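User: Fold this; tokens only.

Assistant: Input:
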Amino acid sequence: MTRSRKREISRSGKAAGLRRPKPKPQPQLSDELNSIAVSDSIVETQKLQKVLAQAGIGSRRKMEEFIEQGLVKVNGQVATLGTRVSSSDRVEFGGRRIDVSGTQATRVILYHKPEGEIVSRDDPKERQTVFANLPKPKNAKWIAIGRLDFNTSGLLIFTTSGELANKMMHPSFDTEREYSARIFGELTNDQILLLLSGVELSDGFGKFEECEAIGGEGRNRWYRVIVKEGRNRLVRRMFESLGYQVSRLIRIRFGSIVLPPRLTRGKWLELKDNEVHQLEAQCGVTSEDKTHGFGNPQHKSSRGPKTNKARDNDELGQSAKSKRRSSRSVKKINSTFESAARQTSKPKQRSSRVANSTKSRPA
């Protein structure tokens, strides 16, 4: 279009009374908002102990102890309590760099610990460790939720989330630990009542929440017991206080999670994403707690079940209802991830699903 043609169009527009619309005034930002809008240096930060806990190193409380001991460095400098870090900072713990730039979904695995393994990564006696049989998580570390001594077998739970581990182990949650114990001899009714009311041990008072005879052969008797503490060798020491030696001890339940009957000794099974989310909800792990890095949490999409053993379709996925038979009486435990509460059923209501979780192992 020529310049003369543009002038003609402009004159015709003015003659018709047409005017170019005035631009609308732009809203003015406050000084505070304006400084945020134009700043390129504002980054999201989080407390150092939280970042370390979500990296799977341990609980926040433990991380605070490590920071106070000078074991954590940020950008080459020894960190102090109150230090905040961003995704671009270099964080080191014990000389090892911790990845804080990204985020991973919480992982949880169940492990059937056999006798003769320790729940530790390092052992001066060089005994077999449970961690040698576990899969290696990427940019994370397995945290054992509770421990079992060298000669005790049964359910162990591992997670990559320090927050989840801390909540499941904290005494304020009164998490039940259920065991099958074989002793030489038979308890009297008075002795059972004494164990339920409590006995004095070297490190304080101890008691069973439940104690029930579930059979046995000869002089060997099996008992189902429940405690709410994780003190070292507590169940064994309770029986020993009355003169009974425990020859076998198997943990069959921790909180709402039951040892899957088909998970054989030395094998592990990884929970699916929806099961992990339900477990976190039960334990009160908030969305803030679950944010492993910076910004919005990123979750692995549709992670299927992983295991080093074949897994039944209904083993833990939908968890209709897990049941366990104990000789002549039966206790019904709610679904592993539907509820943490236990319910007692009438005798002779037997279940084929969890019958092996107690009776078949002791035999």
